[in-house]
Amino acid sequence: MARLQTILLILGLVVAQACKPPPDAPTQLDDLCTYLFSHHSDEDSANMEAGVNNLITWLDKNLEMTLEGYSVSGLDSTTTGALDGQERSVLGIFGVAVGTESAFPLADAVYAMVAVDQEEIHGDYYSDYQRDYLSDPACFLAQSCPRLEATEEYEAHFTLGITSRNYTHNQYLWVDTYGGLAMAHRAWLVEPPEVDFYWLQVEQQYYLDVFVPAAGGHRRLQVTWMVNNQDAVPQDLVMNLVIDGMIDHSDNMEDWFNSL
Description:
Layout: H1 2-18, H2 29-38, H3 46-66, E1 70-72, H4 77-81, E2 94-102, H5 106-114, H6 118-121, E3 126-133, H7 137-141, E4 147-157, E5 163-177, E6 180-189, E7 194-195, E8 202-214, E9 217-228, H8 235-259
Antiparallel strand pairs: 1-2, 2-9, 3-4, 4-5, 5-6, 5-7, 6-8, 8-9
Helix pairs in contact: 2-3
């Protein structure tokens, strides 16, 4: 009898887990961006899986709305403070998102992001690029490890002749979805960059880059949040510079694939 009760208890726990509903992730892009950034480091994968599934559904219907830039709400100080324990101001933070699609396989895009020297792909944007892996990239690319971390130091070149020196922390994560594996990448500035234009003195910057499976290839959503407390130029100009940079990033990857 005792053995039967134990078996029934185990079966009950299994059924309870199997019937557990997915997390109540947001369904609209504005909230999804902050949700995916804040839950990226969760030990339990359920929140990211629910969020990325909802992102796939949203992009299926609304991708065109993001092609030229889409404004999203800012991150809160609880989320930014949890990254590495440093207090970061979010006063005046703004966010913009850009969606793109590609006929190339998602796994190839992840390889290009993770394994290829970015100067080779984005020669007009990056110079003096250095990446240090904090975990095993081969294990990640083989999909044997769910996570990868790395730091990057590089010089970035923007329109109007703007140059900045950046040091970022990067985290990459495989996410199971109903359409197959997706990859979510988030990054943040470890310290304010050295920018050679006085009116573009960036205090903080955060980045989310999600690659999701799609018929015939993949879709990609890039999101940048920035704190720029300079009043010398309109915020719209800064936002457009960021949008142009994300569009160029996707275009450069397409050109690199086509050149192979």
